[in-house]
């Protein structure tokens, strides 16, 4: 058992409007919700201070499950501390949380009520420790738990770097004991950088795998390569039915390094993506969509058949890794930007254009680098848009500045601004 902490006194962080968020660091271009291949355009409407909304009540969504909430307030509290380079985060059926440790090549179970942290053991844990390769951005990365009632219910899936590339493994967790692991999918390009790694089950019950281009030219645009893609597979590793190309696991292509995937209550799929030197992206993911890398970074690729992002950031402002979606917005965990970004939903009906999203806002900062974000599965999201998230910091990953207690798992309670 590791050192742990109970939740500390909550720290209330006020609402930050998009205009404040854009200038909070003084670094790089301002974020924009419209997307642009160059500096964000200035319109007559944006050149003047925005009008205060006439009402603060959220706009109800009807049957879609979305609400339009202009601004939110958050309350942040520690759940657990002392984690070493945590990366993946998933909820277990008993209400505890499963966290992967990239460089330690291990898994831990966190009790969110007590903050207790327990190491996962067993033959599967031994295999992860002995056969996972670390270095740079590689190691033990994403983790997902099979949804109840579906194939692979309760089983654990991990994305890790092996000697011959990245792969997805599957095992059974009994308490804190992990069974021997089976390879579900291999042949994913690996490198010291751009390793992808996020795993998540979609509303359809299939496993989605986010991969990086592994710094290999041509990988992202090559439909025969698993690099620079979002993949959609069964729990046995087979291409899921109704994929864009029968017999292929590829769901979307043209990605540089996706490390965040999520679905909102309408079933709309979102992905966060690291840019090279200019623009980070939030995308609505369409089956068969080509997101342009390396031909396009940011927006401006529609004429060539590429899908434009719905929001972009300067790379110093975001470097987005984990992603979660609530009824009222998308939340991105920023590494380089050291912030939790909110992109509010502007339409209760969803939509795949930039008009369906509001201007990005900073809702949490001062925690350092942020790696993962997860909607608290134990909290029912309110009709007013209230909810809660778990967020992992990542200051011990070799690029941050660790402080006392790092790395930590925190809980972020969200409510509409009063």
UniProtKB/TrEMBL annotation:
PROSITE patterns listed in its UniProt record: PROKAR_LIPOPROTEIN (PS51257)
Biased composition (Basic and acidic residues): 398-410
Keyword Plastid: no
Record's signal peptide: 1-21
Biased composition (Low complexity): 23-48, 56-65
Highest taxon of source: Bacteria
Record's keyword terms, sorted: Signal
Region (Disordered): 23-65, 393-418
Keyword Transcription regulation listed: no
InterPro entries: 6-blade_b-propeller_TolB-like, Glc/Sorbosone_DH, Quinoprot_gluc/sorb_DH_b-prop
Domain Glucose/Sorbosone dehydrogenase: 83-399
PANTHER family in alphabetical order: HEDGEHOG-INTERACTING PROTEIN, HIPL1 PROTEIN
Protein name: PQQ-dependent sugar dehydrogenase
Organism: Cellulosimicrobium arenosum
């Amino acid at each position: 058992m590791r050192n742990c902490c109970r939740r500390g006194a909550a720290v209330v962080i006020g609402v930050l409007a998009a205009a404040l968020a854009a200038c909070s660091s003084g670094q790089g271009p301002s974020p924009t919700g419209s997307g642009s291949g160059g500096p964000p355009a200035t319109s007559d409407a944006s050149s003047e201070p925005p009008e205060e909304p006439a009402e603060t009540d959220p706009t109800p969504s009807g049957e879609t499950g979305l609400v339009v909430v202009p601004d939110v307030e958050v309350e942040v509290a520690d759940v657990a501390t002392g984690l070493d380079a945590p990366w993946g985060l998933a909820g277990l059926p008993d209400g505890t949380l499963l966290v992967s440790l990239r460089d330690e090549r291990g898994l831990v179970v966190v009790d969110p009520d007590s903050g207790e942290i327990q190491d996962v053991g067993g033959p599967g844990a031994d295999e992860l420790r002995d056969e996972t390769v670390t270095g740079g951005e590689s190691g033990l990365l994403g983790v997902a738990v099979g949804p109840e009632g579906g194939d692979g219910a309760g089983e654990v899936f991990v994305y890790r770097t092996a000697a011959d590339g990245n792969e997805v493994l599957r095992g059974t967790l009994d308490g804190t004991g992990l069974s021997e692991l089976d390879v579900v999918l291999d042949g994913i390009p690996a490198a010291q950088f751009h390793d992808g790694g996020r795993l998540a089950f979609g509303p359809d019950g299939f496993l989605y795998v986010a991969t990086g281009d592994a710094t290999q030219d041509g990988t992202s645009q090559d439909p025969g390569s698993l690099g620079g893609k979002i993949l959609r597979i069964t729990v046995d590793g087979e291409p899921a039915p109704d994929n864009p190309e029968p017999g292929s696991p590829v769901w979307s292509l043209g990605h540089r390094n996706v490390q965040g995937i999520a679905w909102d209550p309408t079933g709309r799929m979102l992905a966060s993506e690291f840019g090279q030197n200019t623009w980070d992206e939030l995308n609505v993911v369409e089956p068969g969509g080509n997101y342009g890398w390396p031909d396009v970074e940011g927006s401006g690729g529609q004429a060539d058949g590429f899908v434009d992002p719905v929001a972009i950031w300067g790379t110093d402002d975001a470097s987005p890794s984990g992603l979660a979606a609530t009824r009222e917005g998308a939340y991105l965990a920023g590494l380089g930007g050291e912030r939790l970004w909110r992109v509010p939903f502007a339409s209760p009906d969803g939509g795949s254009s930039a008009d369906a999203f509001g201007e990005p806002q900073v809702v949490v900062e001062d925690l350092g680098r942020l790696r993962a974000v997860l909607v608290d599965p134990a909290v029912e999201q309110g009709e007013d848009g209230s909810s809660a998230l778990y967020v992992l910091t990542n200051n011990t990953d070799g690029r941050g500045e660790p402080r006392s207690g790092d790395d930590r798992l925190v809980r972020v309670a969200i409510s509409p601004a009063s």
